[in-house]
Amino acid sequence: MNQPTSINNEQSRLSACPIGLDPHRMPRHIAVIMDGNGRWAKAKGLPRVMGHRAGVEALKRTLRLCSDWGIKALTVYAFSTENWTRPGDEVKFLMALFERVLQRELEALQEEQVRIKFLGDLEALPARLQVLIAEATESTALNTGIHFNVCTNYGGRRELVLAAQKLAERSAIGELDPALIDENLFAAELFTASEEDPDLLIRTSGEMRVSNFLLWQLAYAEIYICDVLWPDFDATAFREALADFQSRCRRFGGLDPVPTDF
Ligand code: IPE
Ligand code: IPE
Ligand code: MG
Asked: Is residue 257 part of a domain?
């Protein structure tokens, strides 16, 4: 007899979880600052852009692992509002790479039921890329698999300012009482509206900063920094990050659980 789907799903989730990890304590949403592409290339005597190309493979690998291991959402930092200050050739290469990868991978994303979204100030991106982004977003919107958010021309401060502007506009036309603005209303104006906050932030390449990433959403994320350069981030490095996450005690401002006879 066939088992109900929910039991099948639960079983496949438990069997897909890597050995040594607790399937019941996996993060639901992981955010990643994919850093170190340039240094990876330099160490190999290659031009920086080769690091970005290798970084795409690491991203595909990580998305597949997240999907296999039952993680519900992956949000990655692909291009910051500050990255425009890089040499023109590198920026141009990155924009062309985003276009190429999106074109090439859309079919696979569909097959895997990935729901892709691009978070950021998208109007500043090249027109062709904007069209591809709109197509990919629309065509995967009803997919039932992992939520894959690609932060492109994203800046945490910019996101907060835009949210404040939208709330101010609604208040100015009398649609919203400013006294009613609370955390939920504010969060609903962010690019990440309707997504749960990340449980875990991973930053590769050893840099210990948030670089304007998800300033609101990371309020209570566990932060994991590893020395691995992004193109080398693989299943072993990822498993280590998850094991570290599972060793943490998340208090959210409260206290550690205490024995009941205390
Ligand atoms: C991250 O790698 C990718 C982007 C910012 C687009 P970097 O390009 O920052 O690599 P490093 O930090 O210079 O090694
Ligand atoms: C953060 O990395 C942005 C992305 C990974 C896209 P950067 O390399 O731009 O950050 P900084 O300059 O070291 O802070
Ligand atoms: Mg960097």
From this structure: no
The ligand 1 atom nearest the CA atom of 33: 1
Q: How many domains does the chain have?
A: 2
pLDDT tens for 160-179 read 999 999 999 999 999 999 99
Neighbours of ion ligand 3 (CB under 5 A): 35
Active site residues: 35, 83
- Are the CB atoms for 160 and 216 separated by under 8 Å? yes
Does 48 lie in the same domain as 83? yes
| CA 98/CA 94 separation, integer angstroms | 6
Distance CA 51, CA 35 (A): 10
Is residue 98 lining ligand 2, measured as CB closer than 6 Å?
no
DSSP output for 121-148: -GGGS-HHHHHHHHHHHHHHTT--S-EE
Question: Is the entire prediction scored with pTM above 0.90?
Answer: yes
Closest CA to 136 of 105, 94, 112, 111: 105
Answer yes or no: is 15 within a domain.
no
In the DSSP assignment, the letter for residue 118 is: E
Distance 77 CA to ligand 1 centre (A): 10
Assess if residue 4 is contained within a domain: no
Positive or negative: CA dihedral 224, 146, 134, 190: negative
Are 175 and 218 in a shared domain?
A: no
Identity of residue 60: K
14-36 tens-digit pLDDT: 567 888 999 999 999 999 999 99
- Classify residue 253: in a domain, yes or no: no
80: closest CA among 158, 137, 132? 158
180 and 56 in one domain? no
Check residue 54 and give left, alpha or beta (phi > 0: left; psi -120 to 50: alpha): alpha
- Range of 182's domain? 155-195
